[in-house]
Structures are given as structure tokens and as C-alpha cells.
Design brief:
InterPro entries: Ald_DH/histidinol_DH (IPR016161), Ald_DH_C (IPR016163), Ald_DH_CS_CYS (IPR016160), Ald_DH_N (IPR016162), Aldehyde_DH_dom (IPR015590). The protein is α/β, with parallel strands linked by helices. It folds into 2 domains: about 280 residues, Aldehyde Dehydrogenase, Chain A, domain 1, CATH 3.40.605.10; about 200 residues, 3-Layer(aba) Sandwich (Aldehyde Dehydrogenase, Chain A, domain 2). The protein is about 40% helix and about 20% strand. Helix 4 runs antiparallel to helix 7, helix 6 packs parallel to helix 7 and helix 10 crosses helix 11. It starts with 5 loop residues before the first helix and ends with a strand. Bound molecules: nicotinamide-adenine-dinucleotide (NAD). The site of nicotinamide-adenine-dinucleotide has 29 residues, from helix 8 and helix 9. Nicotinamide-adenine-dinucleotide binds next to helix 8 and helix 9.
Length: about 500
Amino acid sequence: MTTLSHEDWKARANALGIRGQAFIDGRFVDAQSGRTFDSVNPATGAVLAQVAEGDAADIDLAVAAAQRAFDDGRWSRKPPAARKAVLLKLADLIRANLHEMALLDSLDMGKTITDAVTIDAPGSAHFFQWYAEAIDKIYDEVAPTGPGDLALVRRVPLGVVGAVVPWNFPLDMATWKASAALAAGNSVVLKPAEQSPLSALRLAELAAEAGVPDGVFNVVPGFGATAGKALGLHMNVDCLAFTGSTAVGKLFMQYSGQSNMKAVWPETGGKSPNIVFADCEDLDAAADMAAFGVFFNQGEVCSANTRLYVERPIMEAFLEKLVARAKAMQPGDPLDPSSKMGAIVDARQLDRIMGFIQGGQRSARLVTGGTRVQIDGKGHFVQPTIFADVAQTDPLAREEIFGPVLSVIAFDTEEEAITMANDSPYGLAASVWTGNLGRALRMSDRLHVGTVSVNTVDALSAQTPFGGMKQSGFGRDLSLHALEKYTALKTVWMKYRA
Ligand code: NAD
């Protein structure tokens, strides 16, 4: 909860000055074409800002600025401790502007202000601080070559990092890429999702205020098929860090092959299983977290626990607990601090979710929810929805819906639970609830996913890598491991008289 009231948040939202221009080479600029697109609040339909519609011409300018900055060393050759000082200041500035950053995300894509101000915006400050503090504590290697030779194995920044991110955590997805890439000494050109460009633009402005030099952090808003593709195909982009759908992640791998073989790091979709055994020691906690795991952020979470496997003897009792929690999470005005769920990002996503719900009403048992709602006659909202008796082959159990829809499936044995959980093109995350340590470890061995959470859901922190297996992609954000994708190994040999 926040200490501000609904009325306070509405007043602050009305008073916001929103910038929609691109941020290139240290300043706000219009798109070269002069075109703009509307940024729309999905909770009300109101237009928040006219946003510069960047395309290949703007990406060219931004990449050129980023490359100039990288080549002259204004950031790339600064001592790590100097980059650290600037990024710590950026973390402080995000904290000083926490309400504004939270409001931009809440208004732009519909998440609740409570989540934005307690999770997303503080998270952004924390991740910048974490990489700032880490970067002057990492040592390179000396190879064991013997007398007469000195071989250094150094980690060096790559150059220009392109980052393309989705709309579900606009500030945090931008931060996950930019914090590690900038700490490592790269220049960055970020393309935010067209549904949610506002917080990334403000972030770039704050970065400049903190002392990130001109050209080092550029943000070009625009559409995927134009600006995103131009970044993916650019000959002077050295690395492309992508978070978004699996289909677009595959496109970025093609763009790389069609251009300069840039490294591509896709972090893509998910359909995460959550497995509850009858020997779970706290079924109330499991039900709390199962509901959170699928309805948090309106279900628009890549690692959302959207497939719930429950051991048959506890199925009906567990469902009852779950329904009670779903009913308590009805959507409301995102700016009302008491709202547990906000608005769906746009009409297209709403239609997609409702399409799955309509299909599910024919193929499975609707236990609760299933209806689109409006708040004060406006906006795109969907009730928390639970289907039981879902077949493993049903689209409800196979496809990433990216909305507040849970599919519940019964199982009889551990082996069956593992087989069904792994039966998915995705492998981002999984959760297991059990009081049996051996079973927890066996399950974590055999679940083919990037993160297994035992007796919780979706565990995540700056200290641990986040990313997937199979068609959830192979990029990793967070932790020191994320620095690997933004650096290259350089070997330096020196001869001396031994
Ligand atoms: P999306 O793939 O449609 O868009 C993501 C980004 O790619 C946007 O910036 C978009 O403009 C750009 N894009 C779209 N088409 C493009 C094209 N043809 N060429 C180049 N760029 C293009 O995804 P979305 O709808 O914004 O986000 C939802 C998806 O993101 C879900 O699949 C979700 O699982 C995934 N996601 C994954 C993670 C993770 O860490 N694995 C985290 C959050 C979201």
C-alpha cells in the first residue's frame, strides 16, 4: 500500500509533465519524419502524450551517437569506480522521482499504482545500484602460462548494445538491460514497447542528469516492425538484448544472420507450471501464492504460473481456497491504492485474452471469473479467471495467454506431474509445493526451466540470473552472469625475458 490516497494519485497524475520525444545524443528530439503516435491510458482511453514515432532514420542517428561515444571513451574508458558513482547517482534520482516513475508506468500500461510504486520503481533504483556497486569489484584473469609469457584474459565492453523490451514491466525491463550494459561500459540504444514508452524516456533524462555522457544512453520510441527491426538489422550494433514474445525473439536471430552476426540474447515467453503436492505443509500459503503467481500484474508476466497442477486428493479443497483469493482480487482503477489488479494493456490484448476465455468455456470448467469489466464505464479490465478440468492438450494449457487466466489440472503421481510440467514449448520457470525435501530436489533436478521456486512462486532477485530454456530463450538478466552478455573476452599476450 502507498500512503497517498486515490485522490492524491489522481491529482499527481493530472499534474505530470510528460515528454514523448526521442532521447538521442543527450537531448529530446522529434522523430526525423515528424510523425508521432498516441500513448493511451488503457484504464480510461485518455491520450497521455504524443510520442515520437522513431524509425530506421532515428535508429541510425542513435546508433551513430552511441558509437561515437563508445569510440572516444567518454564512458567506455572511464574507470569502473567513476561509472559506479554516476550510476549510484542515477539510482538516487530514480528514488527521488519514485512517484513520477511509478505513475508513468501505471498510466501507460495499466498496472496498479501500488505495484508500480512498491515494486517496479524501487526495483529500478535497486538494480542500477546493484550493478553500480558490482562493477568495481570484478577482476580479470591471468592465464597460467609460465615464465616468459604473460597472458591477460580481460572482459571488455562490446560497444553499442541495442535493447528491445516489452510493455509489461516497462521501467524494469528497460532497467534490467540498461543497468548491466551501462555498468560494463557499453553505449545503449533502447527501443521501448510502443504501448509503454514513457518511463524509459524519463529514465534516459534522469541518466543524463546523473552524469551519463551524451550519446551513451539513447531511447528511440517506435513500432517493432520499423524501429525494432532497424535496430536488429543495424550493422553497427554489437549486441541485441531482447525481451518479448518468442515469435519476435526468433526474428531477432534472423536479423542478426541477415546483418552483422551481432550477439542476440532472447528472453521470451513462458507458460510456467506450479505443482502442489498433497504433502505441502501450508496450503493457505500455497493458495495465496498461486493466486499471486497468476494474477499479479493482470497476469501479464512472462514467468506467470499459469498452469496449476494439483495432486488429486486435495484438488477440490485447494480450488475452493483459490477461488476465494481470486474473488478478492477484482480489478479496479489502477490509481486507487486499494486496487489489487489494474487494466489490460490495450484492446488487442484484451481481445486475445477474451478469445482464450471463450474457447475455454467450451473445453473446460469455468470456476470463477471469465468476464470483461469496465471501471466507471471505461477501460479494458478482465476478472481473475480460473478454469478447472483443463486437458493438457487444450490451448489454455499450452499457449501463453498473458492475462489473468489460470488453468488447473489434476495429477496422481510425481512422475506424471513432471511429465506434464515439462510438456511445453516453454521453459522459463516452475514452482513446487511440498514438505518433502527429497521430492523438492528431485523435482528441481528434472524440471526443464531456468528457475525453480520451492514453496514459493517466481522467486527473483538482483543476485540470481533470470531467463529460460527451450523457447523461453537463452538470455539471462540479473546477477553478475548478465554482465557476460554485455562483454567480450579479450586475450592480451606479452613476452618478457624470463
Ligand atoms: P512483443 O514480442 O510483441 O514485443 C516486444 C518488443 O519487440 C516491443 O518493443 C516491440 O515493439 C518489438 N517488436 C515487435 N515486433 C517486432 C519486429 N517485427 N521486429 C523487431 N521488433 C519487434 O512482446 P510484447 O507483447 O511487448 O510482450 C509480451 C511478451 O514478452 C510475452 O511473450 C512475455 O512472455 C515476454 N516477456 C518475457 C520476459 C522474459 O524475461 N523472458 C519478460 C517480460 C515479458
